[in-house]
Amino acid sequence: MKDHIEHLRAQSLLLGATQPESYGSAGTVTGRSSQRARREMEQFLEEKGCIPGDLLSSMEGLRKEIGSLERCREALATTTTHAGVESVVAAFEDARSYTTRQLHEFKAQIQRESDATEELARIHCQENSIDLRARRSGCLMLMHELRKLMGLLYGEVEGFRHDLREHRKNQLAIALPHASDKEIEDALDRGVGLQQVLNKRSSAGRVEKLQDLQDQRSDIMKLERSVAEVQEMMSTLALLIDRQGGLLDNIEFDVVNAKYTADKTYRTLVDTRRNQRRAQLWMLGCGFCCFIIIAIIVLLLVLLFGRRL
C-alpha cells in the first residue's frame, strides 16, 4: 500500500512538472506552480535515490555557467581593438569547450544511470516496479534538463557568432568604405579578417602614400605660385585703388567747383535778366521822349511854315 501511494505521488509530481507553462485550463499548473512542482519532483526522486544529488547541483551550476556566456557578448559589443576581440573570442571558446565537455559527461552519466535502471528492470522486473518507474522518470527528467541546457548553449553560441559576424562586418565596412554589403559578406564567408585587410592596405599603402606626398609637393608648389600671383595682383589692385582715390578726389573737387560755378552762373543770370528789364525800360522811356521831341519839332515847323504862308 505504501509503495502504491509513493508511485501515485511520483506520477502526480511528474505530470505537474512536465506540463507546458502555456497551459491555462483548469487542473493544470502554470508559472511558479510548475517550477514548484518540478522542484518537489526532484526532491522526491532524490530522496528515493533515483537522481544523484551532485548531478542536479552540477547541472544547475552549468546552467549558470551557460548564462555567464552573455557577458562575452556584452564584452564583444564594447571592444573596439583587434586584440580585444580576439581575447573575447578566446575566452568564449574556452567557456564553450568546457560547457560542451560537461554536457557530454552529464549525458554519459545519465546514460549510465539509464543503463543501470534497465539492467535492474531486467533482473528485478517484478520486485521493484515502483522504484524502476521512478528511476526511469528521473532519467527522463535529467535528459529533458540536458536538452534544455544544450538548447541554451546552442542559443548562446549562435547569438555570439551572430554578434561576432556583425562586429567584423562593421569593422570591414569601416576599413572598406567603398565596398558593398555583398562584397563584405563574401569577404566574411572567405574568412577575410580586418587584420588581413589592414596588412594588405599597409603593404600597398606605402606606394600610395609616396604618390600622395609627391602630389602634395606639386600642389604646394602650385599653391606657392598662386600665392605669388595673388600677391602681385593685390599690389596692382592697391596701386589702382590709390589712383582711383586721386581720381575720386579730383572728381570731388570738380563737383564742388561745378556747384560753386553753377551758383555764380545762376546769380549772374538773375542779374542779367534784371539789367535787361531795366535796359528795356530805359530804351522805352528814351524812345517815348524822342517821339515827344520829334512831335514838338514837327509841330513847331508846321506852325512856322503856316505863319509864313
TrEMBL record:
- Gene Ontology CC entries for this record: endomembrane system; plasma membrane; SNARE complex
Q: Which residues cross the membrane?
A: 281-305
Look up the record and give one Gene Ontology term from the biological process aspect.
vesicle docking
Q: Which GO terms describe its molecular function?
A: SNAP receptor activity; SNARE binding
CDD domains, A to Z: SNARE_syntaxin1-like
Give the matching InterPro entries. Answer: SNARE, Syntaxin, Syntaxin/epimorphin_CS, T_SNARE_dom
Q: Does the keyword Lipid metabolism apply?
A: no
UniProt name for this protein: Syntaxin-1A
Q: Can you name the source organism?
A: Perkinsus olseni (Perkinsus atlanticus)
**What does the organism's lineage look like at the top?**
Eukaryota, Sar, Alveolata, Perkinsozoa, Perkinsea
